[in-house]
Prior knowledge:
By secondary structure, the chain is α+β, with helices and mostly antiparallel strands. 26% of the residues lie in helices and 32% in strands. It is built from 8 helices and 20 strands. It has helices at residues 125-139, 159-177, 193-200, 215-218, 221-228, 264-283, 301-311, 340-343; strands at 4-11, 14-21, 24-30, 42-51, 56-61, 64-68, 79-84, 94-97, 102-103, 107-111, 115-118, 146-150, 185-188, 208-210, 232-234, 240-245, 250-255, 287-292, 318-323, 329-333. The strands form 4 sheets. Strands 15-16-17-18-20-19 form a 6-stranded mixed beta sheet. The radius of gyration is 22 Å and the shape is globular.
Amino acid sequence: MKGRVLVLDEIDGRQSAALMVDGRLEELAIDPAGDVVVPGAIYRGVADRPMKGQGGIFVKLPGGSGFLRQISGVAPGQRLLVQVTGPTEPGKAVPVTGRLLFKSRFAIVTPDAPGLNLSKKIREEEVRAGLSALAETGMQGADARLGLILRSGCAEADRGAVAEDIAAMRGLAEAVLADLSGGPELLVDGPSAHDLAFRDWLDPPVDEADTDPGSFERNGVIEAIEALRGTRVALEAGASMMIEPTRALVAVDVNTGPDTSPAASLKANIAAARDLPRQLRLRGLGGQVVVDFAPMPKRERHILDQVMKAAFKAEGDANLAGWTTLGLYELTRKRDRLPLAELLP
């Protein structure tokens, strides 16, 4: 199965979405069960008690609390608009930020970050000029605090659809910014799995969409999910890596398998490094990640360094710390979704 295929279905009555690229699962979203805070949701909260040692303050939310990594300019009792940045870990407050983003398929409205900007991926001057004019028209007379970013998908999109997105996100942002009176309340829900897919996975455009019942089974998504539920990931030439999350970190162990040639370790390590970002993303794993690559000469580490940098380039919130004195490789990745093990226990 060649090309990019958007697959929409349900799992246990919950919206689910997948993106298959040349027959391989690249993106996965599943709505959580029950009343779970979804990343992207916007709340009106009330500042509670500061935690100076942690560089933040607790914020009262409906039915719980959030943690805002900001103290300056925030006083207890103050009404705040905050947005959820990631999943809630058991026993911890919801991670939130005061930097709101109102995001659609083509437009992102940015309160307190004024200015009109276009994605750097849009390079044709004529296209940029036309979109800049569209942005100026769409934001004319808007709240001075609002900025606008036009996403790369705008380049090939219908101009009417782009204008509609700008108007919708501007209207939503202005309504939310004006709604600061009252107690803790959910103002904007986070995107569902289907909404997220249409918003973020269609650039570049898909070649096919399968939205009929049973689409996950037909397109091999169920089989791919079952593979993700295990700890072992098969690599080329019989090599493998084991991905095992613990409470403190995610441990990754790379094995060469039956290949005993001098180049076996480097080959297995390169294959593991290239697939690691996808595996962590689909499994919903983040935080500290420690990789025990297969033994190889130190002189070859620079090769693996370049492979890791290239592999994680598209992962905007990953930090590659590099090698430890014990020969392990450390990195951190932002927790941006619920772990698959929690979504499908």
